[in-house]
Fold:
Amino acid sequence: MTVPRSHPRYLSLTTRDKLVEGWENGLVATQGLIAHGRGEAFDYLIGEITTDEARDAIRAAAATLILAEDPVISVNGNVGALSAGDIHILTTRLECKVEVNIFHRTEERISSLVSHLERHGIENVLGAEPDSNIPGLDHARALCEKGGIYSADVILVPLEDGDRCKALKDMGKRVITIDLNPLSRTSMTADITIVDNLTRAIGALGEEILRMKDDPRNELIRIADGFDNHENLKRTLRRISARF
Ligand code: PTJ
Structure:
């Protein structure tokens, strides 16, 4: 069924359709549909908007990514299906690499995701030929490429899993995540957590990068270093409590 534009839940319903289509095309894991439902529940709680707290996190993320020497965007099934176009824009503004890294790993899904991202204009997508391991993980998300995630200094990894977030930090990387659940282990472990729907956050991040990319280095450092993730998450939780 085609959702009419006039439907009050148009955006939410068409986002679901995109994910289901991604699942039918072998991009999205079945578990990804369940994970999206959890995300939707938290999106209700924050009011389905990019909050002031998320905007502060987006600014800190933009500054951190502009300052990075070797930034990488890690893409899983949900992220590829929902946001490939916005990720392409990010790569052109940051000149960063993209690596497919999935939890429910099959070679078919990896190659479907790589082709999907390339069809959206992203070049040299990494992840199909892993030659390294993130230490301390015994699942498929440990697999990565030396020239990509393994050697990156900053990683943007939307819908991360808590274990890998910690393992990446243990490797000395700065981790930026997008996660609607402010209580997830990932949210609490990352250096910068953008509590927002990735369908809003990645576009907003791209706009902020465009606005800030010629700002003086000192100013970018001030914004990146001045961000306190735990304080920002507390503010988000206070917002949710107030809505109750
Ligand atoms: O493609 P794969 O194989 O790597 O699998 C992807 C999933 C998402 C299934 C996998 O990474 C997973 O199991 O994730 P989790 O541990 O369920 O975490 C997903 C987190 O993302 C949860 O905290 C959700 O609230 C959140 N989330 C879901 N949809 C969105 C979201 N956050 C932002 N935007 C969304 N659209």
Notes: The CA atoms of residues 135 and 170 lie 9 Å apart. The pocket of PTJ is lined by residues 29, 31-32, 35-36, 38-39, 42, 76-78, 102-104, 159, 161, 178-181, 184, 197-199 (CB under 6 Å). The chain is about 55% helix and 10% strand.
